[in-house]
Design goal:
The protein has 444 residues and is an alpha+beta fold. It is 30% helix and 19% strand. The structure holds zinc ion.
Length: 444
Amino acid sequence: MTTTPDVPSPPVPPLRRMADGTVKQINPFTGTEVWTVPGRANRPIDHAPDHVAAVDPDAAEAHCAFCVTRLRETTPEKARLVRDGSTWTVLDEVAPDHLDRTTPEFRLFGNLFEIVSMDYWKAVHGYRMSDRAATHQRAYLASPAGADQVRALVRARIAAAQGDPAAVDSMTTDELAAHSESFFGGCHDVVAARRHLTDGATRTDRHASSGSLTPDEHEQFVAFTVRAMRCLYRDNPHARYVSVFQNWLKPAGASFAHLHKQLVAIDQAPAKTDRELAALSIVPDLYNTLGVDVAAAEGLVLAANEHAVAVVGVGHRYPALVIYSRSVASLPWEHSPEEVRGISDLLHACHAATGPLVPCNEEWHARPPGVGVAMPWRIVLKWRISNPAGFEGATGIFVNTIDPWSLRDRVAPRLAELRDAGRIADMMLGAECGDVRGSLRYGR
Ligand SMILES: [Zn+2]
């Protein structure tokens, strides 16, 4: 392995099995130390929900504020994706009086409670919402139904901040507009899927997860999210980075057990991204040598297709599956539809093999726009099955209950079953992938 003093390359092998079976890992990119001690890998990892009830499978879904029968409980839609057979169409800014005319398979709307607020962007950067968003807001508030929806949301947000929600009742349209700017021009968005529960579910714990979508639906979910990512960069010239992630189930940070992704614009690249960019300027092939090649050498390649490769990650705080794009392009929206489909298929397969009861975070990593270094788009799926505690805080060493080889041995048979059953797209699995070393083509 090529090393220089400036590259975050470990001084010891990234993966070592000790004499008693303890596995020590060091993340080749970040240096994060992770240990797995023997005998803990077989603990049950499924999350048991607090309360399970029977559902009427014939009744329309109304389990949470993201359900499609409660379209007016979210901020006004920025866009929706509708389906007619195999034709998928984006409808931008559906009018409040037309919300029920079509069924959205996926919806894009602003997060009512932003991580980075509109006030932050305005105060720190002098951000103003785009003319398009302002036009959308004016049209929405001009409709009595739209104004009622916005008023109820402003009331909910003021109540959550311990304010007096009654103050909203006497607000003029201008005041309502001032209090609802973030709904239309904010920079923290949500993409929610149509289903809350799987089709025909009879119990409230049968949540429709990423893995329960069809490969076609999942492709549309990813492509629609890529489009939303690009829109955030387009509409906020101060956005240096857009973080895209999915929290699944409460232990992974989800407020609703209803499938959704989030997009948050921030005004700097994360420090870890800057470190990787600096390392890439010295070793351009970093993601092959420290990523795919390390996985291949340890027998941790799970699946591949023409456009992507999925491996078990080394040195993550939680058991992690990593999907690397093999595209020449760095930015997600510069990937061809076929390339997006390739990544989506492997991500979908990893979700399906994980199963709907395992809390997990899906984290997208992509090069910030406007940077002159190539970097592959990659997605990490982390199983949130343990809680770092005092030992981790005191030592900086994370105890991960499943080592990479055990994770491979759990996931690989599931992938084979799912492929045989036609539940995931066709792809190469394990040894069928051949030699994937050096197969990331970013920047070439
Ligand atoms: Zn729901």
